[in-house]
Amino acid sequence: MRKVQLYIENQLVDLFEDEEIKVDSSIQDVNDIAKVFTDYSQTFTVPASVNNNKIFDFYYNNDVDGTYQAQTRVAARLEINHAKFREGKIQLEGAEIKNNNPESYKVTFYGDVVSLKDLFSDDKLSDLDYSGLSHEYTGANVQTGITSTSDIDVRYPLISSSRVWSYGDAAATDISVIGNAIDYTELFPALKDDVILDAIEAKYGVTFTAAFRTNGRFLKSFTWWKNRTTTNFTNTKQDVLFTGSAPIGTNVITTPEYINSDLVPNASWIVVPTISHVSQYIQLQYNPSFSGEFTVHKYKNGIHVGQQSYANTFGTSGVIGLIGYASNFAMDDDWSFKISTQQSGTMTGTIKHIVNWTESDIITGGTTTNTQSTTTTANISTITFDNYIDFNSSAPDIKVADWFSGLLKQFNLTCYPLDDDLTYQLEPLEDWYSAGGTVDITPYVDTDSIKIDRLSLHKEINFEWEKSKAFLNEAYEEINGKRYGDLKNTFPYDGSKYEVKLPFENLLFQNFSGQSGSEALQVSYCLDAAPNYKPYVPKPVKLYLHEDTACDFYLDNGSATQITSYVPMGQDGYYNADNYSINWGDEQSSLLGVGVSNSLYQIYYSPMLQNLFSPKSRKVSLSCILPLPMLTALTLDDKVIVRDKAYRINNMKTNLSTGVVDLVLISDWIKDRGALPPSPPIPATGATIVLPVRPSKPELGGSVWINSLIGSKFVSYTGTPPFKYYTDSELEITIPANTTGLARTNTFEIVYYYPDGTVEKTLYFPVYQEADVEYLLTESSSYILTESLDRIILE
Question: Which of 36, 190, 521, 774 could disulfide-link to 794, CB 3.0 to 4.6 Å?
C-alpha cells in the first residue's frame, strides 16, 4: 500500500485518507517549446487538524497574529512511503469553515523553478552588485577592453553612439587617419553574461551549476551595458562617513530610543513616550570642490529607499544649502547615505540630526505642553570622487527575470532545482537529455488503452530578436525583407503560429575589410537612420566575442594610438577550432565574410525540432503503475522504452495516492542520444580543443570512461587513459602542427556506464586534422597565381 507524506518546512502535515494528490511534471512542452516548466499539483485540501492549525497559524482566523504568510510560498516536500518524490514550494490558497468550525485548508504544490520568478520579483539588472567589476573609465582601460587576449569580464565593443565612422576615404570620419581617432569616450562597456549570473547568485543566494557555464561558447557571450545616449557615466557611489559623538555613528545614523532626559535641556521636562509626538529629520550641508550635479542616495536599514540630485550652482568655492532627508522616521531605524557624481574631486560638509518632541511639566503637575527640539551636528569625512564606472546606474533597463528568461530562450536552457532548493542546474535541453537513463516500462503499462495521436505542430515558427532602430539593421530589413539575425520557418501543418522572441537587440556590424590595412576590422552603430544619425537607447544588446584579429585603426586613449590587433565583438564566436554565431540562422558573417552554420537554432534548437517534425513522430498517451523504486528514480530526461520503441517524456502526471502514472510521450528518433558533437576539421597549424563528457544519471552514480585512442596517436593530453568521470567534465586535447603532408585522424572510444556498472552505450569521437598546404612559388618566392588571383596549390 502506498501512503503519501507532505512536509512543510520539515513539519509533517496531516492528510485526508481519501484525498488524491496528483503531481504534473514537465520540463518543456511540445506545444510551448520556448518555456521552461516544472512540477505542480492540482489544488488539494488538508484537514484543519490541531497539527495543521499550528503549521498554518490558524489562517482561517485573522484575529490571530500568526507568522504564516499565505502570500509567500514556503519550502515543502512530497514523499511516497517516506521515499522522497519531489521537493518544491507550497502555496496556501485558503481555508474553509463549515457549520462555524474550521474544516480544511487548500494548498498547491509547485516545483522550485517557479519560485525563481518570485525570488527575482520586479528587480532590475541595476539592483545587482557589480562592485567587483568597477574600474576607472580611462583610455588605457578602454584600450585593454578592445585588445586584450586575456579572459576579462568587461569589454569595449567598437559600437559608435555618436557618429558614423569611415575607413580609407580621407574624410573627417576616417578612423584610419590619426587625426580622426575613435575617442575612448565614444565607447560603452559590455559585461560577460557569466558574471551577470554571478551577481544574480550573490543577491538572491542561489547557485546555478552546470558544465554549460564553463563552455567556451557561453563564456564568449556578453551584454552591452548601455542605458543612455552618451557615456556620461556616474562614478561609483561613495559612503558618507561621519565624525562626532552619539547619536551619530561612524558610518550610519542609528536612532534607537535615546530620546530621554539626557538630551532634554531642562531636566524638569520629560518626553511623552509616544512616537506620534516625536518628529526628527536630517539636514546635510555640502562643500564640493567641483562644479556640477551630484546625487544623494539614502538607505533605510540597508535598503535603498530614494535619491535626489542637486546642482552645484555655487561653483567650487560655494556651499550647497541645507538638504532635508528622512523626516519622521521610526526611532529604531538605521539610516546611511551615499553620494555619486559624474565629476572628479572631493567633498566636505556637515550633517545635522534634528529631533522635535512634546514635553509636559511634571514638577508643577500642570498640563501645559511645549514643543522642544535638539540638534546634533557632526562633520562629514572628506569624500573623494574618482573616475570609476558605477555599473548599477549604467545598467540596461531590464528586469532580472526578463534577462534570465531571455538567456534561457537564447540557449534553449532548462533550469531545475537539485537537492538543495537554492541550487539549480542550468544547461541546454539536449545536454540535459544526454544525462538521462533508459527505462523500459513495458511490463507496467496498461495495455487496455494506449492512445496514439499525430503531433499538433505549429505551421510557422519564428525565432526573433527585438526590432532594432540602428540604421544598418533597418537598411538590411528593407533590402532583405526580414530582420537581421531572425529565422522564420513555415510548415504544411494546420497548427498555430509560434514565436521564440528574445528581449535583446542584435546589432548588424559593418566590415571595413578590403580597405587598405583594415584586415578584418568591423564596427557597428547605435544610431538611427540618416540624415540625422541620432543616438538612441537600445534594448539590451547581446554580443559574441571572437579571436584576436589583425586590424589597423586609431584610438584616442588620451593621445592618438595605432591599434594593430583587437578582439572583435559582434555575432561571431570561436570555440573548439570552429566558428559559432548568435544569429538564429545561417547569416553571412560580417566579420568572416561567409555563412556560419553553427547558429543558435542549429546548435540549441535543431535536434529537438527535427525530432518533433519527423514524419515518424507520434504522441503516445498511456497509463502505468510503476514499482516505487522505479517511480522515485524516473526523471523527465529519461528515455522511456515501450514495446521496443524509444520515447521522450513530454508530460508526466502522477497520482501519489493510487500510484497511477499518466504519461504523454513523444517519439525519440535521435540516434546515439547524447552523442558528442563531431570535431571540426583541425587546421594543419594545430589547435587545442576540449572534449565535453557527461555521465548518464550522475546523481545516482553513473559514469563515463574515455579509453585509449584507436589508431596511431598524434594528439596529446594530460594523464593516462582510461579517464573516468562521474560528473560533467572536459578533456583538453592538444593537436600539434601537421607536417606529414597527409590528413590524419585519431578516434576516442567513450563508454557510458549505468549506476549499476552495466554498459549503456559506446560512442566514438574522431579528431580529423587537415594536411599542411604548399603553394607553387616563382624564383623570387612570390606565389604563382591563377587568372582569378588564387594561389596554385602544390599537390
Answer: 774
